[in-house]
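User: Last request for today: this protein with iron/sulfur cluster, please.
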Amino acid sequence: MPDFSRRDFLKLSAGTIGALAFSGVSKLGTPQVRAAPNFWWQEETTTKFNYCEMCYWSCGVKAEVTNGRVAKLYGNEEDPTSQGHLCPRGQAGVQQLYNPDRLKKPLISVGDRGEGKYREATWEEALDYTAEQLKGISEEYGGPESIAWLNHTSSGAWFSHIAAAWGSPNSGGPAHSLCLGAREIASKLTFGRPVGEHMPIDWENSEFIVLIGNHIGENTHNTLMNDFMGALSNGAKLAVVDPRYSTAAGKADWWLPIKPGTDTALLLAWINLLISTNNYDQDYIDKYALGFEELKEAVTDYTPEWASKITDLDAGLIRRVGRGLARYRPHSVVPPNRHTSWYGNDTQRLRALFILNALLGNYGREGGFYFAAAPWLGDYKYPPMKLESAGGGCGAGGGGLGSDTLPEGVRPRADEKGKKFLYGSLAEPEVIEAMVTEKPYPIKGLIADGTNLFHSVPDKERTKKALRNLDFYLAVDILPQEHVMWADVILPETTYLERYSDLKTIHGKDTPYISFREPAVKPMYESKPGWWIAKELGERLGLGKYFPFENIEEYLDERLGTLGLDLEYMKENGLVKQPQLSKPYLTDYVSKGQKPPFNTPSGKIELYSERLEEHDLGPVPQYEPVNDSPDGYFRLLYGRSPVHSFSRTQSNRWLSEIEDENAVWINANTANRLGLSEGQYVVLENQDGIRSNRIKVKSTQRIREDCVYMVHGFGHNTPEMPIQDKKGASDIALESEYKLDPISGVAGMRVNFVKFIT
Ligand SMILES: Nc1nc2c(c(=O)[nH]1)N[C@H]1C(S)=C(S)[C@@H](COP(=O)(O)OP(=O)(O)OC[C@H]3O[C@@H](n4cnc5c(=O)[nH]c(N)nc54)[C@H](O)[C@@H]3O)O[C@H]1N2
Ligand SMILES: Nc1nc2c(c(=O)[nH]1)N[C@H]1C(S)=C(S)[C@@H](COP(=O)(O)OP(=O)(O)OC[C@H]3O[C@@H](n4cnc5c(=O)[nH]c(N)nc54)[C@H](O)[C@@H]3O)O[C@H]1N2
Ligand code: SF4
Ligand SMILES: [Mo]
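Assistant: Here's the final one, the structure of the complex with iron/sulfur cluster:
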């Protein structure tokens, strides 16, 4: 036998493959030489404007299109949010568009709910059937409030629009009650201003920064990371308070590994320290704040030594960081984080955080918080709606209170809890609870548009029960996610690269602006844009007069007309900047003899809240302990992966190649004690006996011994999406408990505990 080595084989096969690639064989069997294809950048490309929807930061995008395909996405250099850059998730938007798992046609269920059996349908049939079902539910159960509309995409507003026009207050999504509700309400109560989408922190002038949780670097909002890193390169000092040595902690001068759930004690101790050492901004407080004496009285016992026992942090360290905050004020800042629904005492924790900032005199000052300016854009003129705004909750939030001075979403006292309204968007877990209990009235229909009901709402078993209890459930999505495969009708939406959306107004320090999205390519398969789906459904529900435009181009032209612009202008320019509206600092008001824009009823920063006092909700934050972990269990903490968004990107081929499963972080000493080794697969069991999918152990000194941590968004059960199916474990599946914050109603999810099963 000739000596035929593996090396020869490789040589041979490379040659053969090469020859095949360049010759090709015609049908007649005659070899033909083909030219090498051009790379896309050698072809003629067209640029289409968009804003990224791989997360909600809305970075401005330029899509390069060639031969009818999106070849590459770039950050739009003119766009203040992207500043010419996209994060890995943003770049992987191309793969979301070309993900082979996408929903392709309307589907109608032919099995039981949860069974996942479907037949294909035409749009006409699916929409007619949906409208008929929804009208039937409204008639049978006393009105449109028996139908809930949950959403979390840029198309969601079109569905909330149907809810408002028809008269259902139960419309909204996870962004408030499972994310930033407590922060927004606490900020409005204290400063009379929301924080808003993009945190108005004056990073470029900050000299001393304290992050609480807030894991910037893993939480990868593009410009937030740049601005934060910019502050550090300018020499700002950094302290990070986190039970885990996060990426941000890795950049910090001080890491404060706090006992989870005790942050309010730490914040109160810093408030106490500033006041008791006379190190707060007395002049600022005298001019702009109310309730200082009451605050002082309320925090007298909250010394650093007291907080040390509760937080498990060294009292000396608490004092050192507190003194740093005082030394650099007003250029020192404690930014709020975004996902603030933690432990069920969240509004008061955030109130303490904002009060601390007020004592530093940093709101409206360089290096602290700036006054964010909103761009101006006229609304589309609709006929009067049945409800003013179902999405935001007008009546939905403040309904039963008899007080128009509380920010929307603040819970009324128990005895006044609204009978008519369920706080709509402001309370997704409560809407789901109502689907199970049928109290205060039945909710029998559901539209879920771009929100993952099995990955974003705690108590997954209850969510399943709620879905089983419905008469009709419509899912509008781009992928066959697990919750989607429970719907009676599934409608495939286009991705953001194939659709127009409404104009996006973006607040800012120097440049409030309006962003524009146009389709880069034609919709793939039979997918349709959200605005079209809502219009077609609205018309079938007899609400045609609320969709008076022929198409979205007409709608956009009318809105742009309020600025003297039109669609053609946006297609050429991609955005409109309005720098003239910017007034970031107090001096911009005071120098002109104007009142500072603290929109509280008193016009001042409210350190002591009479409004909360009036409703027995605690006028000044006090420390309330959180639940303790049962013996042998660890508190379950969670956060973000820098290369994934929630549970929506695990099937994205580019992103899953970088990270395709999560791991459970456990302190190395504890891992040794339990005999667990790095990389070993385990199952987690929570306090209610619920078990996770298998998950890898990450044994590390970078976390306290009393808790474990995992990245959110993995652990799918989706046979239709093989890339993500059964990879890693789901945090939500282990969060069968949650605690509602009495003021904002946000659902604290870090009240669950797990043990290891090997
Ligand atoms: N790459 C990427 N970036 C994202 C997202 C994404 O999906 N992917 N999602 C975006 C969205 S919508 C949001 S809301 C944000 C969320 O991001 P953040 O607002 O930063 O959320 P946190 O809850 O602070 O993040 C978790 C951190 O809190 C720590 N932690 C847990 N318990 C405690 C505690 O009791 N005290 C303290 N001090 N720390 C604690 C955890 O260890 C972890 O480091 O991220 C945004 N950015
Ligand atoms: N346990 C736990 N729960 C959490 C969190 C957590 O960290 N841990 N985070 C909370 C936070 S901060 C937030 S903001 C929420 C996020 O909550 P969600 O936004 O509900 O979370 P996602 O997992 O991103 O689900 C998005 C859904 O939209 C679909 N989708 C994506 N793009 C489009 C589109 O263009 N059109 C349509 N129609 N559908 C689309 C996806 O396929 C997916 O089904 O979750 C909250 N819940
Ligand atoms: S931060 Fe990343 S994912 Fe989010 S909008 Fe910007 S580019 Fe897209
Ligand atoms: Mo969020």
